[in-house]
Specification:
Blueprint (H helix, E strand, L loop, with lengths): L8 H38 L9 H22 L12 H4 L3 H17 L5 H7 L3 H13 L5 H21 L20 H27 L4 H22 L13 H23 L2 H23 L8 H15 L1
Length: about 325
């Protein structure tokens, strides 16, 4: 007897749902790459006499506050606030304080690092977080990766290494090219800060993914817990800077407010990826945003790319093929 597979309406509906699901994820990841890639060039646009004119602490506090308000709005729109929920148990909420501390540290490091490197060098060197995240992902979450996937992650790390080797400048940021245009550069302090940033970033991502997936709570509720701690911790940091050289909103321009809105949106989208995807997907988003960063740095800042720049781009494409094939 010949068995004919079902190719009727149900099969077509499943195919449409599968492609719709892929399209949604593609749009989400593409938007994240766009926001992440534009972050460093936007900060560079705000600089006055080579310095960031606004308070890093106040900027991070506003970003965390925007994410908290968005979480509250999400709860209200979904009707979760129609009935008062029981008070959360301290042991249930306490784990959300750890990523809040780690992300607060990294958010401030991002702003500080801009004074020690150009936007594209920051974007490429930050790919070193792939090594730390992959190792922690495998060790802490018990995820076993195939050999080809380890090779792919190694290629992502190598992409950052090749670029940093061709652009590393320990003589300071004043080096210029033959044509007088600005060159890629990173100072010794910048290298130290980016290594610290990558280690903390990997730990924060893996720990956050573990917390989000281990608790069977709506994502909006988990975001509420996470960003409540974020606002509290960054609020203390902002209070400690009162009376300093800059006021809370001093130096804010339209570009700074775009940064605040973009980073708030990216934080909320990242929680979706960590809840329903994986931290490795987050790494590919960050690596892919290198292309956005390079284009914006060339178009807006006039940055001169080295001849080696296409090599890390090709390595990232090969890594994506090996990991997801």
């Amino acid at each position: 007897m010949i068995v004919i597979q079902n190719v009727g309406p149900r099969s077509a509906a499943r195919t449409r749902r599968r492609w719709t699901h892929r399209l949604k994820w593609g749009l989400l990841l593409g938007l994240m790459a766009l926001i992440y890639g534009s972050h460093a060039p936007l900060i560079a646009l705000t600089k006055v006499d080579g310095r960031v004119p606004f308070s890093a602490a106040s900027c991070v506090l506003l970003i965390e506050s925007a994410k908290l308000l968005a979480s509250l709005l999400s709860l209200a729109l979904t009707g979760a606030t129609s009935a008062p929920p029981p008070p959360p148990r301290p042991l249930l909420v306490a784990p959300y304080a750890v990523p809040a501390v780690l992300y607060a540290l990294n958010n401030n490091l991002v702003v500080v690092m801009q004074a020690h490197m150009d936007p594209s060098s920051f974007q490429i060197l930050s790919n070193l977080k792939i090594a730390s995240t992959a190792l922690l992902y495998s060790a802490c979450l018990g995820k076993r990766l195939r050999s080809a996937q380890w090779v792919a992650l190694g290629l992502l790390t190598a992409a950052g290494g090749f670029h940093s080797y061709s652009s590393l400048d320990l003589q300071g940021p004043e080096r210029v090219g033959v044509d007088g245009g600005p060159r890629l550069h990173v100072t010794a302090w910048g290298l130290l800060l980016v290594l610290m940033y990558c280690g903390v970033s990997g730990l924060a991502a893996v720990y956050t993914e573990r917390v989000l997936k281990s608790q069977q709570l709506p994502l909006s509720v988990q975001n509420l817990y996470l960003y409540t701690f974020g606002v509290a911790i960054n609020g203390l940091s902002s209070l400690s800077s009162i009376g300093g050289e800059r006021g809370f909103l001093e130096g804010y321009s339209a570009v700074v407010w775009v940064i605040v809105a973009g980073q708030a949106a990216n934080g909320l989208l990242m929680s979706v990826v960590l809840k329903h995807g994986s931290g490795i997907t987050r790494l590919f988003v960050i690596s892919s945003s290198m292309l956005v960063n390079a284009l914006l740095s060339w178009a807006i800042l006039g940055l001169q790319l080295t001849p080696w720049f296409p090599l890390p781009c090709a390595l990232i494409g090969l890594a994506a093929y090996l990991y997801y094939r």
